[in-house]
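Dear support,

I submitted the protein below through the web form. The confirmation email said the job was done, but the results page showed an empty box. After a refresh the structure appeared. I'm attaching both so you can tell me whether what I see now is the final result or a partial one.
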Amino acid sequence: MSDHTRHPNGAGGVRVALSAHSLAGRSLAGLTLVGFSLVGCASHSPLASAKVSQAERAVDEAQQSGAAQSAPLELRAAQDKLTAAQTAMAKGKNDTAIRAAEQAAIDGEYARAVAANQRANAVADEMGQYVKVLRQELDRLPK
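What the results page shows now:
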């Protein structure tokens, strides 16, 4: 049976009527396309993108703070989790991407904090040495 049935109309023309089977098939195809479009739009959710961007900033800040030298393990963990978040987002696994990005951001912030702490400790040690030298100088002064 053909998809189209021709019926003469009263004005001498031809009216085309689609069969119910043809309409159902076309409706299903249209709904499938709409479904794929919605999935495509949802594959990069704004929340996942925002979380990954936040994690990227945290990892960049950790690198700029010197974490590569003073907190390499912590920085590597942040970078690995950021890569996992980016991969998950590319595959449309938004929940996984969000979780990995949140962990990467926390690890990046931690790496930055470890680097800052080591810098602060180095400054404190240096100041301690200055104080020691000053005390020795004071002890040499006549009383």
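Response: this is the final, complete result; the empty box was a page-load delay. Residues 1-41 have pLDDT under 50 and may be disordered.
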